[in-house]
Design a protein that fits this description.
241 residues; mainly beta; Outer membrane phospholipase (ompla), Chain C
C-alpha cells in the first residue's frame, strides 16, 4: 500500500501524477530449501512524489506538492508451500514540497514502527499454474509518531491473477487493499486495481508488470495530506525491479 510500497508505479488522472519508487533487497540468505524458501535478511526503502499540473498565467506548470520517504530493515522466512513471514523495523516521513495553491503550511508527519507481515500464496510456488492468489496481512505498533499514535497500524490485501495462455503469458490482474496507519485522525485507506499484467509466479520469465484502472477511497494516502478525504479513480502502471 502506498506510500510504503516496495514497487515502482505511476498513478494519474491526467492532472495529478503520483510517482513511487521502491525496492526490497536481500543482503543475507541461509537455510535455503530450493529457490523459493529459506531465511533472508535485508533492507528496503522508497519514495512517493506527488506532482500536480497547473496553468499559471497561461503557462503549463508541474509542481511537486508532497514527498513521502521510507526505509526499513527486515528478517523473513518463506516456506515451500507458499507461506511468508517477515519482521520489519521501518521509518517514514512526509513533507510538503512547493507551489501548492491549496496547502501552504506543512504538517509534521513521522513514524518509527515495528510490524509483522504474514502472507500465503496459492497454489504453492513450486506448482505450475495459470492462476495465482496471494493473501497478506500486517500488524504493528508505532514506536514514535507525529501526529500522535492511534494503535495499532495494520493492513490487509489480496492479489489475484489469471494468465490467458499459460503461466508465462499476459493475464488479468485484480487487487484490493485496506491500510490503517495507526495515526490519530487518519482514517482507513482502501485501494482497488483491475487491469492486465504478468503473474508473480516462479514460472514467469517476464518482469512483473501491470496496467489498468485504480480506485482509492478514505484518507489521502499522501501522508502530508492525510486529513483530506479522497475518492479517486486513476490510471496505474506498475512494475518491480
Amino acid at each position: 500500500m502506498l506510500p510504503a510500497e516496495v514497487s515502482t508505479k505511476i498513478i494519474t488522472d491526467g492532472k495529478r501524477f503520483d510517482v513511487s519508487v521502491g525496492k526490497r533487497i536481500s543482503m543475507l540468505r541461509w537455510s535455503e530449501d530450493g529457490r523459493h524458501s529459506g531465511w533472508s535478511a535485508g533492507v528496503d526503502g522508497g519514495m512517493l512524489a506527488s506532482l500536480v499540473r497547473y496553468t499559471n498565467a497561461g503557462r503549463l506548470t508541474f509542481a511537486t506538492n508532497t514527498f513521502d520517504g521510507f526505509f526499513g530493515l527486515y528478517v523473513g522466512h518463506a516456506t515451500p508451500d507458499g507461506w511468508l513471514g517477515i519482521f520489519r523495523v521501518a521509518h517514514l516521513s512526509a513533507h510538503l514540497v512547493d507551489n501548492s495553491p491549496r496547502f501552504l503550511t506543512p504538517v509534521g508527519y513521522s513514524q518509527f514502527w515495528n510490524e509483522i507481515i504474514v502472507g500465503k500464496t496459492f497454489p504453492n510456488p513450486t506448482e505450475l499454474s495459470d492462476w495465482d492468489l496471494h493473501l497478506q496481512a500486517n500488524l504493528g505498533l508505532n514506536n514514535t509518531s507525529t501526529p500522535a499514535s492511534d494503535q495499532p497500524r495494520a493492513g490487509l490485501g489480496v492479489d489475484y491473477g489469471y494468465a490467458f495462455n499459460g503461466p508465462d503469458s499476459m493475464g488479468l490482474i485484480a487487487t484490493a487493499d485496506a491500510s490503517r496507519a495507526g495515526v490519530m485522525n487518519q482514517k482507513l485507506t482502501y485501494a482497488f486495481f483491475l487491469g492486465m499484467g504478468y503473474l508473480k509466479r516462479p514460472q514467469t520469465t517476464h518482469r512483473p508488470f501491470r496496467a489498468g484502472l485504480a480506485y482509492f477511497r478514505g484518507s489521502d494516502y499522501r501522508n502530508q495530506l492525510f486529513f483530506e478525504k479522497q475518492n479517486w479513480l486513476t490510471f496505474e502502471v506498475a512494475t518491480e525491479f
